[in-house]
What does this fold into?
Amino acid sequence: MKILLSNDDGIYSPGLRALADIASDLGEVWVVAPDREQSSVGHAISLSDPIRVAPYPFPDVHVAYAVGGTPADCIKLALTALMPEKPDIILSGINQGENTGISVIYSGTVSAATEGTISGVPSLAISLDSFTSERFAPAARIARQLAELTMRHGLPNDTLLNINVPDLPEEELRGIRITRQGLARWQETFDKRSDPRGRIYYWMDGHKLEMEEPDDSDGRALTDGFVTVTPIRLNMTNHEFISDLKTWSLEAFGVERAHRC
Ligand code: MN
It folds into this structure.
């Protein structure tokens, strides 16, 4: 079994190391990860710049490459240029910082898994609910369990698993809850500063807004101490809204123009 690992925190991240430790029990591990932090770059890909690749001395894995690109670049490059054949599974993480609610859109961790899913490889994104903690062992064990279950059951073609783990000792985790992507979003703030030459710049920061959410939303369940597993679908069409949208008579637009011609 071939396992491809990536992340958005950078190839030197301890979360990636923790994932490699459990993955090496499962099979041949390939690490293809950004050579620097790429958190919150979303699904960006590099079209205007060259993508540099260098072997990286990652312990106890088959091969590791540090890539001068985004998480999505890493997966595209691994699947089409670096690996002789597609991996059986892709694991992205373990991210420092949860990825629930709207964060799924911005997350490079999720985007690496998204890119795998686009290419037909079952993919999991794993995040720890802390920006500073290095308590990765519980999350790594859960990632391993879910990787094994994913290999056994498979995933639908357009679906990845987004996993978030509370920053708690394993015995304090309340269990695993299957969740939906919630509404949680961030309220941004901009710190206005001046550089050494007196020019103004801004540094984006923010805090997560407190929201009333159902028990089975990812953000709420995570806060309540559950490991959350959310099946994320790539196709974002709002099927329920299509019938309402049809009442806008948009489709008459082309028809009327064709009549005028
Ligand atoms: Mn990150």
About this structure: The chain is about 30% helix and 25% strand. The mean pLDDT is 96. The pocket of manganese (II) ion is lined by residues 8-9, 39, 95-97, 109 (CB under 6 Å). The CA atoms of residues 132 and 198 lie 32 Å apart.
